[in-house]
Amino acid sequence: MSFQPDFVRIETAAEIHLQVAMAGEGPLVVLVHGFPESWYSWRVQLADLARAGFRAAALSIRGYDGSSRPYAIEAYSIVELADDIAAVINALDPRGAVLVGHDWGAVQVQAAALLHAPKVLGLVSISVPAALHPSEKPSSLWARSYRDRLFYQSYFQQEGVAEAEFEADPERFVRVFFRSLSGQGSLDDNVLFRPLDAPGLLDGLPDPADLPTWLSREDVEFYADSFRRSGLRGPLNRYRCVDLDWELMNPVAGRMIEQPAIFIGGLSEPTRYMMPGRDRYDDPVPRMRDVRGVRLLEGVGHWVQQEAPARTSHLLLDFLHGIGLGGSPATADDVVGEATR
Question: What 8-state DSSP symbol labels residue 341?
Fold first, then answer.
């Protein structure tokens, strides 16, 4: 990786330390990753935002990389993680920030927009819609919806099981997981659903001999080394908080996201169909009041900012300039890195 960010360590009021990759000066943009990723998944956007006159901050959420890794499941609740995002904003620019989140990171920035609204100037959700608060606990919905197959989030609930499978061979875990949910994966054969009698989530899924063009061996090694150091209990604990999240967010169940917002997704995103009989992208912005756009990218699966880095950077810069946040007067074509085109 030619681009090297700076790193800062931010301490929260809850005595959690957070590793944040930094680049550039200007209005603050906080980038929040999902599972199983890292600040590294924003490496292209960090450079492009910095060149455009923004201060880009890619958070490694608790449980990942150099951030704190508390043991307790409840330490990974959506309220705790939204508070972490607020702590990053307070430390870097108390006036506020635009938040950009992918996968679980999208859920976290959406929660931060609801729970810490004065600090959030704009919102970009990638891959995961800002859904309305559900009427029942997720575990109850899963039990009814996935009776004849193994749903990946159900598989993650038992402590230690997924950790043992994934940590046994981190490189294979990264290769199979990333390939499975990418634009080169299959909607009929991916990690979201497995046979009920599958001994492990990844059993039976192909380990790609050739990596997708957007994923290099260096990338795989970076993620694998990161998970060797930090383990996967913290990242998987995020899934074990879904019922707790439902309870904690009940007080704001009827609240809308008021900040200017856009949604970016891949047309080949497998998770859009993970609810039986429903396409989540039919309306990916039901909770957003001020929608500035919905952008679905052809040929792109789940890992949007990595599969389509240049297109993602363009859309982020268009949104930032569109809400009058500032940055350089240069066009997106002038600042998006050559390596991403």
Answer: -
Q: What is the mean pLDDT of residues 183-189?
A: 83
Half-sphere exposure of 37 (CA within 13 A, CB side): 27
- The active-site residue, picked from 103, 116, 219, 245, is 103
Tokens of 329: 């007067």
Tell me the residue length of the chain.
341
Virtual torsion, Cα 101, 70, 244, 155, nearest 10 deg: 80
Q: What is the maximal distance between C-alpha atoms in the chain? A: 57
pLDDT digits (tens, 9 = 90+) for 141-166: 999 999 899 999 999 999 999 999 99
Does residue 314 have an active-site annotation?
Answer: no
Say how far apart CA 54 and CA 201 lie, in whole Å: 40
Q: Which residue has the tokens 């859904």?
A: 131
For 32, the token pair is: 């929040």
Assigned CATH for 6-340: 3.40.50.1820
pTM above 0.90, yes or no: yes
* Angstrom distances, CA of residue 28 to CA of 263, 269, 292: 19, 29, 19
The reply to whether 33 belongs to the active site is no
Q: Where is 113: in which H helix or E strand?
A: helix 104-115
Give me the residue spans of the domains in the chain. 6-340
pLDDT in tens, 269-300: 999 999 888 999 999 999 999 999 999 999 99
Nearest alpha carbon to residue 264 among 30, 100, 81: 100
